[in-house]
Amino acid sequence: MSEPCSNRGLTSLLLVSLMVLAPLTGFAAASPGEETAEPSRDVALPSHLIEVASLDDFTEDLARPYLLIDESEPVMSATPYLRQQWVEADRPGLVQATGTSGRACTQHVQGDTLNVPTSGGSISVTVAKTTGSVAFLVQTGRTLSSTVLQNLASTWDQTIYPTLTTYYGKDYGDGRGIAPPDVDNNCQVQVIIYDIDGQYNIGGYFAPSFASQGEMVFVDYADVTLTWGRSIIAHELQH
Questions:
Q1: Domain count, the chain
Q2: CA-CA distances (angstroms) from residue 224 to 23, 71, 75, 209, 221?
Q3: Which domain holds residue 120?
Q4: If you write DSSP's letter for every residue of 136-161 in order, what string do you get?
Q5: 8 Å CB contact between 39 and 112
Q6: pLDDT tens by residue, 136-180
Q7: pTM of the entire structure?
Q8: How many of the other CB atoms lie within 10 Å of CB of 103?
């Protein structure tokens, strides 16, 4: 939600990382009998905002390794790289989040499908799991087991969200209390899980040019079930 981190914020991120460093197991296909809801609201962005978030020329020099991931190959956040591109483009899509009093959220529903922007363009996703404050959106054609999704949701509700909103959240006067911004009026952070570049390398990112359309963080499908998957989510949420 903000960067650079204060010492207090860095401490919170370290605590969250320590608490969530546990493997998630169980890639699995969706049950054949599952019902699919009608398509949900697509997130559409002007092409110039997507271009600013491109990873085509990504370089590790402008990336940042995630905390507490001790692997022979690096696992990095692409957020610093995308932020620099955004700043150099004169911060397109910059918004100042403001609250509105007493409004109802239009939340994602599990099973919905929609299109969302990514660093490589728009993709189709399915709402695989939701809680009151998060929607896990998984790329169409990719699936996660119910165990993995439940573990992600539980860690989010019990550890990631309450800890990081305490340090980085704000009361926007809309009845949610201390919370992230909510420019898309769904009261949920969207965690978008899709194929970025395979295991290691880029683990995830936050794209500043997308912030005018919703609260979105992105995680590589190949990394999300590994030991560091939930640490990636925690790290990207702070932006």
A1: 1
A2: 9, 15, 12, 23, 5
A3: 37-94+105-237
A4: EEEETT----HHHHHHHHHHIIIIIH
A5: yes
A6: 999 999 999 999 999 999 999 999 999 989 988 888 888 888 888
A7: 0.81
A8: 13
